[in-house]
Every structure is written in structure tokens, then in C-alpha cells.
Automatic annotation (TrEMBL):
Protein family according to the UniProt entry: Belongs to the SDA1 family.
Boundaries of every SDA1 C-terminal domain copy: 737-782
The protein's role, per its UniProt record: Required for 60S pre-ribosomal subunits export to the cytoplasm.
Gene Ontology terms: cellular component: nucleolus
Region of interest: Disordered: 282-314, 519-555, 715-784
Name by which UniProt lists this protein: Protein SDA1
Subcellular location: Nucleus, Nucleolus
Basic residues bias locations: 288-307, 764-784
Amino acid sequence: MSTADSLSASGRSSEKLSLPSLQSKMKIDPEGYETELGLVYNQFKSALDLFQQQAALNFASSSGVCADPTISKDLSDRASFLAHVTPFYPKQLAEFPAQLAEFLKSSARTLPSGLRCHVTQALILLINRDMVDISETLALFMELQTLGDRTLRNLAFTHVVHSIRKMNKKHKNEAKNRALQNILFVMLQQDDEARAKRALITLCELHRRKVWFDDRTANSICMACFHSSSRIMIAALSFLLDYEKIEDDDNDDSDASSAEDDPNPRSAQVVISKESIYKAHSQGTVSSKKKKKAKLQRAIRSMKRQQRLSSENNNSNYYSPFNHLKDAQGFAERLFSRLQTCNERFEVKMMMLKVIARTVGLHRLILLNFYPFLQKYVQPHQRDITNLLAAAVQACHDMVPPDAVEPLFKQIVNQFVHDRSRPEAIAVGLNVIREICLRIPLLMNEDLLQDLVLYKKSHEKAVSVAARSLITLFREVCPSLLIKKDRGRPIDPKARPKAYGEVNIVSSVPGAELLEQLDYNDEDKEDSDDVNELASRGSDEDSENDEMVSASDEGDQTVIVVVVMRREDEDQEEDDEDSNEVDDELVNTNVAHETNESNARAIIIKVNKSPSRKRKLSDFDGQLLAADTSLRALKKMTEEKLKKPPSDSTDGILSNEDFQRIKELTAKKDAKIALTRQGFKVPSSDDLSAKRVDPAKLEAHVRAKLSKEERLAMVRAGREDRESYKSKIAVKQKKTGGASNRQKEHKKQMPLAAKRAKVERSRQEKKRKQNRSGKQFRGKKAWK
């Protein structure tokens, strides 16, 4: 039955309908156009068979362009048409997607470029409308990316990434994702460079977009560093190095402003004492107050930055593909062995070296042969020396034996820091030494540190700043290595670095000691109040006692020892018995009771010292007498204190209020330390291992040498507002205005009397000169 007969049988005119108009009508009335669908489907099959026959008879040229372009045009048009109407005819076109995929799989290399793209677009349309599953065609689309057609490669790659993202948008199907990942993992392990490269690029893109953000994908990307092809290895190394972003800690102002503008009430807490704020705003001169305010702002910014970084670490926002390495030690050893034996160019070796150092520092691995390997390249004239030194710093951590790093450390000191070295090299060397000592402080000794500290007097800013940063570090780590004038005011004068292998074991909740100290201070305050009450009650009773007071400071508290001489009276035996009974109890509550040969008794009372004003010694007279005469009341108070259990000794569980108080007390402590340290805090080993070392920071304050073009550009920039050079005579001759005031004074007519006076002065001056020189006759010469 012909097409005209079928159209007339269906009640329509026999004139030819275009495919786009027929497509729109089919979508409106699918059942009424089933006959036309069958005709177009048969035409597609015939065109497909004809094309395959021509391909079998080698009618295709070597470039892949078919000899008969009309067949390609008809095939691509009908394929696109059927792909659009397939959702409306699922039963009639059930085999069409499989035929299209099989056609692409078998004849993709011999198809013309235009036909290949149209057929691929038709298959993508079917997949987007859920007529075909992506797992059935993923291998086909990955194969299409290796054909060398740029348009087709971009089309297939974009489709794969978009389809997998769409599949994981609402929820993740782990089983389906694993099946798709296995396809790409197998392709990545193949020796074919083109397939492995496309698989690696797809995995990297999905991992970067956080679609496949799991350990299997990250681990497979890391394992691509051992591919037999150097291009695949370089691509994997580049992705691993470029994925991690260097954190910039120098944006203090922007961080502070963003933190202040944040309306979230759970933002970083900064607790500054009222005394510091009062001194910064109300005490001292204008310049001193300005310095105090700047110090407060530095402390606030430092605390906010530290709290923000700690919260980010607690929330696990930091991520790196190296975190998912299943065997980090084996990965580093394999890559290091390949680095030692490979013949790649220097840039590739530097990339491998950075990845090894990053892995060693992040996982705290022990790779002892890595440091002697670095030692060979530590020279000031070495290419990319700052990147190499940054890798050396990254590979240092507290788990490495100091003896293994010591030769590398000495090599850096000897090659970079000496009197004949350039200032740039000295600055970089001092910065590297500071970063290494921040991780392994045991490498530094007293003589070396004192020699390095002398560079603080250098006239080069970069060198002096680097030396002062080294002093600041050892003020916190080990002040005893510095001479007295360089120590400043250390927080802990007895601080020392941990010995190799030393670990601090936490046995309680961090910050719980602050809570206990607060409760202890509150109890002492209550005791002092009770003593004051007793003193006010008994001050009028006894006034004939002889007393001696000695005070000694202990930190923020004062221990006052009161020795009260007892007069011998009838109640002496009774008082001695009372003192013996209460002696053991008073020792536990900081009230010591002793008797000497002359019947002396000492009562030690611990009193908080007020920071704002000092109490006069005469104020304690009544309190001392009251304490002496009220031992029975003290005994009663001690018994009540011993009976009172501590706040957390009942069950050992802290409440939410306790944790909130710990947080506030920790913030106050950090504020006090930040004000003293001027914003500097030694980071923990975990923070140092997670943080990537920026090579640019090793060259801080170093002025780069300008090229000739840059110097000329600076000279020209300074001449923009200046006219071209001219002599003064040319400028005067070119002058268009009148004479200057100086010129007018020279041309001014003098009065007659002034002229005569001037002539007379000149005559007299001439006469004086002759008198000074002597009268000599200067006649004519005797010869001619």
C-alpha cells in the first residue's frame, strides 16, 4: 500500500507533509497518525539498511564521509523525528532505542561527522525522556569521546555529567552509582591512553561537582598516579594539587567585618575584660589609647579567626582527596619509588614531589628516605626552590624522628642563612626554618637560635621580619633558648617542646578545670566574707593583742600569714585543745594552724587580691583578732565545707549549663592570652598537618627583581604629569607672560641720592681693599 493510498484511506489529501508539521500533529493526536508513524519507521529502517550496505561495500571514503549525502540526510532526519515521537508510541517504537544504540556502536567510526552528531543527539533525547537507562549507554558515550571529533566529544561528555548529576539530585542510588563507577574504573585501568584519559576527566569532573563525593572515586583518582601513561599520571597529579585551595589567613579585616555583620547569634564569642576596654578608651594619652585600641582589635580578630577555623574543623568542612587513601603509606612509597626512577621533565618531578609531601604531612607518615632526597636540591640557585622548600616543610611533622630531618635542616641553614648570601635567600631561609621549627621544635639549639636572632637588626625588611617571627615563635615554644632581652613577657617561662613520642593524654573534659577553678574562687570569696563577718563581730572584744603580719604574693592571690601572740591566761589549755582538734581540717581548706614554743599560733587565710586597689594592712587588725577569738566558729565553718560535696562529684556528668560556662570561661582565657601574645598562637599538630603550606608566604616582604621592561614602565609612569626636558634659557625665551619681580627690580630706576650713595660706598670699599693689600707701585714693565 503506497503512501498516497494510505493518506487517502485515512481521509487526508495525498500531498506530501513535512516531518516537523507531522511531528507536531502526532503529539496532538497520536492515535490518528499511527499509519504515518509506520511509514516513517519503515523509511528509517530502509535507509539504515542501505547505509550499512554501502558501508559494507566500502562506499565510504577514508575521511568517513559517505559518497551519497542524501542517504545520510534522510537517515538523520528520520532518526530525530522518531526520537521526538517515541514517548507517544512506546509499543510501536519499543525496538527503536536499541537499534539506534547498536547503529552507533557498530558504525560510529565510519559515520560522517554530521550524521554521527544527529544520531547521538537523538539517543540523548531518548535517555533524557527515560526511554533508555544511562547504565546501558555509558560505555557507548565514553567510547564516542575517543573518536577524535571535538563537537561529539563535548556533546557526549556534557551528557554523561548531566545525566549522572540528574540521577543523584534528589536521592542517591548507591547500587546504580556503583555500577556506573565500575565501568569508569575499568576504563581508567586500561592501557589505552585515550579511554583512560576520558574516564579520568569524567571522574574528576563528577568529584569536583560533589556528585560522586565518596572514597571510591577519590581513591581511584589517586591510583591514576601509577598509570603506565605519563599523560594520565600528570592529569591525576594536576587534579590532586589544584583541588586543594590555599587558605589565606591574611584577610583579617574582611573576616572581622563578615563576622561582625553576621546576625547568627552562635557566631564566635570574644570576651574581653572590662578593665582592658576601660584602659583602651579612658586611660593614658591619645597615642597610648590609640595603641591599646589597636591591640584590642588585633586580639579580637585573632580570636574570631581561631574560633572560626576550629568550628570549621569540628564541622569537617575541610576536605582533600588524599583523606580517602586506603593505604597512604603504600601510596607514598610507590610514588616516591617512581619519582626516583622516572625520566620525566623537572615540572613533572616537582608535581610528584608535592603530592608525596602532602600525603606524608596529612597522614603523618614516616618516609625517612624522602628527606635525603630533598637535601640534594636545597640550593639557593635551584629552580622553583620556594616550591621545593614548601614541600619540605609540608613533609615535616611531630611523628618524624628529629635525627632524620636534622641533615636537611642544617643544609637549609648553611646554604641560605649566612653573611654572603643575598637578602632574599636569607629571608626565605629564616621563614623555612621558622615553619620547620613550628612542627619539630627539637631541631633548634641555643647557639644556632641566638645566631639567627641577630638578623633582626638587618636593614632589609624581609630579613628583619623573618628573624622577629622566629623570636616570636620561640617565646611561646621554648623561651629558655632565647637570651633574656629577647624573651619579652612569655606566658609560660618554663615552656618546653615535647620530647619525641611524648603524648598528652586527656583524662577529663577539656575546660573542666576552669569550671573547678571558678567554683574554688567562689568558695574562697565566701570564706573571706565569713571571716569579715566574724571580724566585725569580734573587733570590739579583744584589743590588747600583739601581732605581726607578713604578706607574700602568689600570682593573682595574696597569702597573708598572721602570727598572733597569745597571752597566758586561764583559758590557754582550753584553746590549745580546740586548736589540736581542728588542725587537720583546717589544712584542707587553706587555713593552717600551728603552735610554737612561745605559744604562738599562725592562721593562714587565702584572700583574693583586688587588681584595682590594695587593701591597707591596718584594715585586717580587727579581722585577725576576730579570727583568733573565734576558732569555734571557724571549726564549725570548716565542718560545713567538708560536708558539702563538689559540684560534679555526685555523678560526674556535666549539664548543658556547665558546658556553656566552660565555653565562656575558655573565651575569657583566650582573650587574656591573645592580649598578652598580641594575637599569636601556636597551632596544634592537627591544624598544621591539615593546612597546606603556601610557597608565596615563604617569600613574604621580599621585593622581586624587576625586569627592564617593568623598570621602564615605572619611569614612564612617573613622567606622565611632567613636560619634556628643556633648558632654562629656552624656558625663559618661550615665556609669554611679563617679566618677573626679580627682573623688574634690576630694571628699576634708582633715585639720584641713592645712586650717589652707592657710588660712594663702592669707592670707600675699594679704598679699604687697597689699604689691606699694601701700597705697591705697579708701574710699566722695564722690558718691551
